[in-house]
Amino acid sequence: MRTHLLIATAVFAVSSCIAPQTVSSPTSEATNSASNLYDKVLSETRARLDSAIGNPIDVPVPLDAGGGYTHEQHKRNAKAIYQAGLLYEATGERKYLDHAVRLLDSYVELYPTLGLHPKQKEQTPGRLFWQSLNEAWWLVYTIQGYEIIRDDLADDKRGEIESELIRPMAEFLSEGQPQTFDKVHNHGTWATAAVGMTGYVLGDQSYVEKALLGLDRSGTGGFLRQLDELFSPDGYYNEGPYYQRFALMPFVLFGQAIQANEPERGIFERRDGILEKAILSTIHQNYAGLFFPINDAIKDKGIATQELLYGVAVAYELSGDPALLSVVAEQGRVVPTEGGRQLATDLSAGKAEPFPYQSMRLRDGANGDQGALDVLRASDDPNGFTAVVKNTSQGLGHGHFDKMGLLVFDRGSEILRDYGAARFLNIEAKYGGHYLRENDAYAKQTIAHNALVVDRTSHFGGVTEEGNKHRPDIGDFVIGERISATSASIDKAYPAVTLTRTVALVNDPALEAPVLIDLVRGAGEGLHDFDLPWHYNGQLVETNYTIDADTIARAPLGDQAGYQYLWKVGEAELPNAQAQTTLLLDNRFYSLTSAVPEGTHVLLAELGANDPDFNLRREPALILRTPLSRSASFATVIEPHGEYNGIDEFTLASHSQIERVEHVEGDGMDVVQLHLKSGETVSVGLAGKSGSSEQHIMQTDSGAVSWTGPYEVIGSDQGE
User: Fold this and answer.
1) Is pTM beyond 0.85 here?
2) What is the model's pLDDT at position 718?
3) Which range is the signal sequence, renumbered to this chain (predicted)?
4) Cα angle 2-212-230, degrees, rounded to a multiple of 5
5) Measuring CA to CA, which residue among 684, 674, 686 is closest to residue 510?
6) Catalytic member of 243, 310, 494, 590
């Protein structure tokens, strides 16, 4: 078996994988299915290549933007070269090598004739593709397939492929585009990985050094700098989980190539094992199999994505952690490599253990000092009640203006949701697959998120460069049996205004299930309008306020900062400074009960205004608005309860068990009290930046409340 310069791509002979053994056990059906994961990917790959071999080679002149025919065909060809190499090694059948060579020959003819792509994207353009990012992606796949067949080619054929195609492409991606190659960004990661892997295959150390250290070999650019700067010490990627997923593949593939060729560099030990941490943190940033949709995220991307398939295989090779096998079971696929085979084998052998989903703080920034993504999970169930608080940095150009934004999930669904990106990825009919103009004009704006808005303008005025300078000041993060909580504040999102948010998962015997307490405050100089939007999922079924609905004519909520895309569909005054809204989603009820300032009213909204091309999803929102005030505090309890069964026609506990919420503010501390319809009271003390032994006491209408440390539940079972 050939020793590979890049990664452990070697697969066992296909003939040994066609008839999997039956495992004799009570779970033989499940484990047999697991063992078939590897067999399945090989058989599917072989069937796909065998079908293609019988057809004419299709290497079209580049014409289309992302998603168009030529764009997608060149992507298919790169994968075909890679897969043909794998199958040639697995079977020894010459037809696979010949197919790879036919494809490569066609590119040898085409590539030298190409100028820049006719539909250049706003980023650095490519030749085969509208942006060089795709070109780097193409080379990462192609060079792996080429490595496998290279030794079996005649010298003149090797020379032709390398001099006319592979070296020119590597030069174009490096010296030809320094602004991308030396950039600390996912585009730079793909470019450096492509060139560095090419260097190892061609035996050209100059390519490797450029890839690792930048074009001038000084270390001011290059893969190593990206590895050091783009991930936090916890493995969180600066641009968020969607782009972490995308960047993960070149990081792990080039990492394996470095390890295979220069183990003395200790690439997997670098920064305390940052590559493995990056893989694991990517897994943790999912709910029900889909990545948290913060920043420019396409919401249907999840852990079964190709990049994380490779990531899990690499992580398992590094650690042998059996919890990764349960991730493979969720993914339902493996990669056609030796790592994929080992994952499938061990999964079928029943070695899997549950992946430890848990509450955690993922710090942001290279030194972990640029905020954090805080995840609060009520249990280890990956589909359980979960809150995500975005206390991170801006996230560069893909960041959204929602400091301390909140997402809430339960039973596999978003309850309070984030819009993600306004984009139809690779659907050419929708602006050529680009980000839509509504991405900047709506999806990035603060009102598009569950984050506090001041004076109907976005955080940092919607200016990315300003947002990149600032991040929240994070408070204590605590995980406990009765309460898990986080807090943060920022005084740079708006001039002379400070925003704070404390989010706590609370468990108490008086409650049907854990609830989420969300305490949001804005305070500053002068008078301001404060808007707290809830982008909710599900059907509105009950409120404690009377809605004056706009049933005949509608008007947008504003003319800028995203408000222009929201229809005002109703309005309501609030009785006794209390707002209670109950939703029904997937046979479960969710009540949002808020203590709000006097004079606060509710706006009901729906996306779709000023959207003649129907680019935006029609989603509802509820906005708590406190007008013309120096400060505003919103204390909300998000409460799952009851059940609706449409099949058996019964309803249980459809009404909230909370009578009212009381919020008492002090100097750096707060008490939120849940007064239940049962007559019991659950009190929660919140002082987000205090020592673990610091004592607090506050007076409420029902008496003094005292606690120790940053957060504590003074529950119904502890007396008043």
Assistant:
1) yes
2) 59
3) 1-19
4) 115
5) 674
6) 243
Alpha carbon 64 to its chain's center: 28
Q: Do 331 and 368 sit in the same domain of this protein? A: no
Q: Domain check: are 522 and 622 in the same one? A: yes
The whole-angstrom separation of Cα 348 and Cα 350 is 5
Which residues does the chain have with pLDDT short of 50? 1, 8-32, 34, 719-720
Strands (E), 471-616: 473-478, 483-494, 497-506, 515-534, 539-543, 548-549, 555-556, 566-573, 578-585, 588-595, 601-607
Neighbours of 218 (CB within 10 A): 11
Domain endpoint, select from 202, 229, 256: 229
Last residue of some domain: 356, 384, 405?
356
Phi, psi (deg, nearest 5) at residue 698: -140, 150
Catalytic residue among 284, 398, 459, 641: 398
155 vs 161: CA distance, rounded Å:
10
In a domain, 520, yes or no: yes
| CATH code at position 194 | 1.50.10.100
The one-letter amino acid code at 383 reads N
Rounded to a whole number of angstroms, the CA Rg of the chain reads 28
Helices (H), 413-508: 437-438, 464-467
Is there a single domain that holds both residue 198 and residue 321?
no
Confirm if 324 and 266 have CB atoms less than 8 A apart: no
- Cα diameter, the chain: 89
Residue 274 has, within 13 A of its CA and on its CB side, a CA count of 24
Are 161 and 294 in a shared domain? Answer: no
Q: Could you give the 3-state DSSP secondary structure of residue 324?
A: helix
CA–CA dist 677, 657 (Å, integer) = 6
Catalytic status, residue 207: no
- What are the two backbone dihedrals, phi and then psi, of residue 661, each rounded to the nearest 5 degrees? -115, 135
Report whether 333 contacts 202 (CB < 8 A).
no
Are residues 223 and 248 located together in one domain of the fold? no
- Which letter does DSSP use for residue 599 in this model? T
Report the alpha-carbon distance of residue 297 to residue 660 in Å, rounded: 36
CATH code, domain carrying 540:
2.70.98.70
Q: Which residue has the tokens 């203590």?
A: 595
Q: Do the domain assignments include residue 297?
A: yes
- Cα(245)–Cα(235) distance, integer angstroms: 12
Distance CA 147, CA 44 (A): 22
Burial class for 244, CB neighbours closer than 10 Å (0-12, 13-18, 19+): buried
Determine what percent of the chain falls in helix, strand and coil, rounding each to the nearest 5: 35, 25, 40
Burial (CB count within 10 angstroms: exposed 0-12, middle 13-18, buried 19+), residue 58 = middle
Task: Check whether residue 553 and residue 478 sit in a common domain.
Answer: yes
Name 585's bridge partners. 588
Tell me the DSSP string of 350-374.
T---------EEEE-STTS-S-EEE
Task: Tell me the C-alpha distance between 636 and 647, whole Å.
Answer: 32
DSSP character for 385?
S
Strands 483-494 and 588-595: unpaired
Q: Are residues 182 and 250 in the same domain?
A: no
> What is the pLDDT, as a whole number, of residue 569?
98
Q: Do residues 232 and 241 touch, judged by C-beta distance below 8 A?
A: no
Q: DSSP character for 166?
A: I
Structural domain including 344 reads 234-356
Q: Is 158 exposed, middle or buried (0-12, 13-18, 19+ CB in 10 A)?
A: middle
Q: What is the DSSP letter of 411?
A: T
